[in-house]
């Protein structure tokens, strides 16, 4: 489990990595990572403040390995670059550069599973591709759950919905 000094040290290292690549991260990033104990759906956040930027991570991320924490911190640090408040082309370009140089897998969104974490949110629906078997857990009703016939898996297969009754592990 990472403690506050470790999180702050990882943030400093990620900032140094970005600067080494010439990525224009803000010089006004708070050196202290904030821990959000209520966050359930997002693992990190970059907040613009009057004095600069504050990076926040979900408490559940502290139970992840160092590589996962670095990846989330790197994602958020890139949001401090000019014109990178969103996940637009400039942000994606910097993310690709960090990925290539430092072995990250920074992308627009990440999942608990991809970071080696158990998702604490209850799964009420499991959407399954009838072709490749890809599983998409859903915590609440959505257009995908209500009308799976309108959507396709990334392989092109048809999707089917199975109710799970709120289990946290859909398998």
Please write out the topology:
Blueprint: H1 4-20, E1 34-36, E2 44-49, E3 52-58, H2 66-78, H3 89-102, E4 123-129, E5 135-138, H4 143-146, E6 159-167
Helix pairs in contact: 1-2
Question: Summary?
Answer:
This protein is of the alpha+beta class. It is built from 4 helices and 6 strands. It folds into 2 domains: 4-115, Zincin-like, CATH 3.30.2010; 123-167, no CATH class.
Architecture overview:
Helix 1 packs across helix 2. The longest helix has 17 residues, at 4-20. The radius of gyration is 18 Å and the shape is globular. The chain is built from four helices and six strands. A hairpin with a 5-residue loop joins strand 4 and strand 5. Helices cover 28% and strands 21% of the residues. The chain starts with a helix and ends with a strand. The strands form two sheets. A three-stranded mixed β-sheet has the order 1-3-2, with helices on one face. It has a three-stranded antiparallel β-sheet with strand order 5-4-6, with no helix packed on it. The relative contact order is 0.13. It is of the alpha+beta class and 171 residues long. It folds into two domains: 4-115, Zincin-like, CATH 3.30.2010; 123-167, no CATH class.
């Amino acid at each position: 489990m990472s403690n506050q000094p470790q999180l702050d040290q990882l943030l400093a290292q990620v900032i140094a990595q970005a600067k080494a690549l010439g990525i224009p991260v803000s010089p006004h990033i708070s050196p202290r990572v904030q821990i959000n104990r209520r966050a359930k759906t997002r693992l990190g956040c970059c907040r613009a403040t009057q004095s600069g930027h504050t990076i926040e991570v979900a408490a559940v991320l502290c139970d992840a390995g160092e590589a996962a924490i670095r990846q989330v911190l790197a994602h958020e640090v890139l949001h401090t670059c000019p014109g990178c408040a969103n996940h637009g082309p400039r942000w994606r370009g910097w993310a690709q550069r960090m990925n290539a140089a430092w072995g990250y897998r920074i992308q627009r969104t990440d999942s608990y599973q991809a970071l080696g974490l158990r998702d604490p949110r209850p799964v009420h629906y499991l959407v399954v591709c009838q072709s490749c078997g890809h599983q998409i857990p859903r915590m609440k009703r959505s257009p995908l759950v209500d009308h799976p016939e309108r959507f396709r898996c990334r392989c092109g297969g048809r999707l089917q919905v199975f109710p799970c009754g709120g289990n946290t592990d859909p398998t």
